[in-house]
Design brief:
By secondary structure, the protein is of the alpha/beta class. It has 9 helices and 8 strands. The longest helix has 15 residues.
Length: about 280
Amino acid sequence: MKKIYVFLWAIATLHLAGQSQTTYGNDPQAGRYYSINGIRMYVETYGEGKPLVLIHGNGGSIEHLRNQISHFKKTRKVLVADTRGHGKSGFIEGQVYNYNLLTKDWAELLDSLQVTNVDIFGWSDGGIIGMLLARDYPSRVGKVFSFGANMTPGEDAIEVRMLRGIRKLVAGENPASPAEKNARAITQMMLDFPKEDLASFGKVRIPVMVATADHDLILLEHNLKIYRSLGNADFLVMGMANHFMPWDEPDRLNNEIEGFFNKPFQQKNLVPKDYEFLLD
């Protein structure tokens, strides 16, 4: 089997070891297709309450967010989809992927679902999409919790060993079938995009949590730059954790997500009001 397929299948199945089989991502009772931006986009809906959107990462699918679906469907209406070219959603042959395209897909999907003011949890590529939705389509969004996202490609944002591995993976492939070419294009996207000007996020007034882990594949310094670029944000570093917390430590991460969405957001001052005399 082609190396990129092995890579994507490894991502898709690693977290299933020791877990019972579920139907998330293949649930005929919860699933439906929508015609979005030239493709058929597959969506599943669970629970009742204030809408919560979950967006998976590169090479992932709805099933990757199983721990978040099972937790949040108890109190929220959970909307979760396979992004373009992933899972059961369609793709266009020869498509060059970028995150603005995927973000436009999600904006059109939210319109088709007739939901606004949705909270969004995005993991990795999903976090990129969540923050781009907050910037470019703010009328659709309530709050965004982004975990393990980057806004530029390259060694200033991504762990260099990860970059070397992806580059070798892509360079060593010669895909033949449309599905194999699509898999390679999705992986290539991580090397080429996103290419966002962080200054453009200064206008964002939607509350955003920029969350990362101290052993994340996305560099801590880069996440701090994203946080500082945002106009209304909070910053969270999960200690003794890595990029795969949604699988490895779902309860710990879900509690942070839940707290951010459920509590009123208020920026902290440098000092308490009674000590403002210390500031010049």
